[in-house]
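Exercise: predict the fold of this chain.
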Amino acid sequence: MSRYRWTILALGTAAQASYSAVFLGLPVLAPHFQREYELGLVEVGLVLAAVNAGSIVTLLPWGLLTDRVGERAVLAAGLAAAAVALAGASFAPDLGLLVLALVVAGAAGASVNAASGRAVMSWFAAAQRGFALGIRQTAVPLGGAAAALVLPPVAAAGGLRAGILVLAGGCLLTALAGAAGLREAPPDDGEPLGDVAHPLRDGRIWRLSVGSSLLIGAQTSILAFAVLFLHGERGLSTAAAAGVLATMQALGAGLRVATGRWSDRIGARIAPLLRLSFALAAALALSAALSGAPLALLVPALVAAGALSLSWNGLSFTATAELAGRARSGAALGFQQTALSVAAAATPPVFASLVHASSWAVAFGLAALLPLAGAGLLRRLAL
């Protein structure tokens, strides 16, 4: 493969980061949503779920379209449309229109998942693929970390509208960059395109997708509510709580690269994924136990849980693409990301309801069971 593959990796990573900053940045703005729209915790959960809810219905179609027409058109069109929808969300006069606009933004921006993932997978050989897709997957926590650092001062100075418009601007910028720089990888000698829907009939893809969905439930539980928990329950300022979230994101990004390199070295994806699942369950259980402890004990446990919750995605993403093969990777990734979005959209309202009905400790404790259930499904795969 040519050196241009690194340009593809940079463009794909930037594009994913701009979209990730949206669904991971909204929790940073959660206190502003509460004040601006006079929302309760469950209503905030609905706002935070809106972007992922929108992506549920479009991830698979975007993946199928990517296999047909290529990555550049799909990525650029989707991110540009997401930018327009986010601009509309910034002017929404009530909760209903706000949620609708965020749903549309999620539906459009979801194009980046299959498009950027397929582009990187196509340009890198198997021996480097875990590392490359690990770097590409750092876009998710890095986008979240950037949002956690940038949005609080922006929203403090310009209000909620300014914060959402910054997210819209990021999507528009990477849409233009993708349109200008992405191109299809050279053809290989692999299987022809054939039936692009084949991954949907592969039991291994289903098992991997459902197992990963349980892990994303644990991830969403901590990342979507860390700021609200630390600010509303434990008294940290919004900026300080967002700083904790940014630390989780930055450490999670490093873990994604490290685990990708690890998986390349041992020639396996599932074995390290299982170990990370067990570590995440332990960290979440510890966070639940320390939910009322002094911050000096609680914050490190939360940071560890948050970082581990982000560590596994690259392995799951790589395993899905490799199971399907290059020609069908768009469809397979679209299907897997649909499953993850269903879980990510369902988690905030459920988690918020658990907190409301019981306590933060109980909710975090139940979330710790999700990685264990996911590991039970994934352990039967040999990758």
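Check your answer against the key: The chain has 18 helices and no strands.
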